[in-house]
Target: Protein kinase domain-containing protein
Amino acid sequence: MLQKFEASSLMSSTSSYIRQGKNFERYFTPEGRTNLKMRGIADLDSALTRYSVFDDVEKQCFVEFVRPMLRLKPSDRPTAAELLKRKWIKA
Model:
């Protein structure tokens, strides 16, 4: 079953930033939902669980490390120095 990734919460906080992109219309609907189709994967947690990449503790540390790096606005992303303090790196 194909699902469309819902970006409504993402769009509410970064709507003007995303709409400035030259490819906005290519990847998003006017309502702010992505046009990307994924097979049964809704988020990073689901993907890692589905493919049994990590045990539960490792998965949580990894998600806490990676998720902030995936923020759309570069100014909202952590610095390298901040990332080096995360459990995933220190473990």
